C-alpha cells in the first residue's frame, strides 16, 4: 500500500511542479492556486504513505537512504505549504516542489537499502531526523539564494518581466536565506553530535572518519563560516547567496557518498 501511495505522490508532485513552472511565465492566479492544491494533495498522499510504512515496519521510516530522502521531500513540501498558506508566496513552489520531486526520484532509482534497527542503534533515528531537518533548512536557503541572484540580475538588466513581478523583494530573499541557515545549522549540529554519540555507543569511537562523516563536518564548518561572516564581517547578501549555493552542493555530495558506499543505516 505504501508503495502505491508513494507512486501517486510522485505523480502529483510532478504535475504540481509543471504547473508551478508554467506559473512562473504567466500572470495567472488560477495556475498558482491549482498547483498549490495539487501539491497539497500530493502531501496528503505522502503523509499516508509514511504512516503506512511506519505501521508496516514498526518504527519511523528514516533508517535507509530511500527513507531519509522521502522524509526530506515530505518536510520540504510541508515547509512550502506553510509559507505559501501564511504569506501567499506561491512562487516558492516552482523551486521547492521540483527539489522534493527529484528527492523522491533519487530514492526510487538508488539501490534498495536493507538495514533495520539494531539494538545499539535504537536512537539513530534521532540523529538522522535532526540531520535531515538541517538539510531542509539549507535547501530553503539554497532556493532563496537562487531567487536572490535571479532577481538581482533582472534588476540590473532592467528586465521587468512576469518572473520579476512574481519573485519576492531582495530584502525578503536575503532575510529568508539567513533565517533558513540559522534554523538549519543548529539541527545539523545536533545531528552530528547525536550521530557521534551513537557511534561511540556502538564502536567505542566518536568518529570513524569515513567520507560521509568528513563531508558532514566540512559542511558544518562551511555554514558556520557563512553565519560568522554575515554576523561579524557583514558579508553582503549576494555573496551569501553564492555561498549557500556552494554549501548545498556539499550537502548533495554527502548524500551521494552515502548512497554509493552504504546501503545500511544513514550515517551523516
Write structural notes for this entry.
With 268 residues, the protein is mainly alpha-helical. It has two domains: 1-116; 122-268, no CATH class. Helix content is 80%, strand content 0%. The chain contains nine helices and no strands. It has helices at residues 2-25, 29-57, 65-87, 93-109, 124-157, 162-166, 170-203, 211-233, 237-261. Helix 1 packs antiparallel against helix 2 (29-57), helix 2 packs antiparallel against helix 3 and helix 3 (65-87) runs antiparallel to helix 4. The chain is flat, with a radius of gyration of 19 Å. The model is unreliable at 113-121 and 264-268 (pLDDT under 50).
| Main sheet attributes: strand count, strand direction, barrel closure | none
- Level of helix content? over 70%
Number of helices: 9
How many beta strands in the DSSP annotation?
0
Short key terms for the protein model shown above:
single chain, flat, 2 domains, mainly alpha, 268 residues
Set down the secondary structure blueprint.
Elements: H1 2-25, H2 29-57, H3 65-87, H4 93-109, H5 124-157, H6 162-166, H7 170-203, H8 211-233, H9 237-261
Helix pairs in contact: 1-2, 1-4, 2-3, 3-4, 3-5, 5-7, 5-9, 7-8, 7-9, 8-9
Tell me briefly what this model is.
The chain has 268 residues and is an all-alpha fold. It is 80% helix and 0% strand.
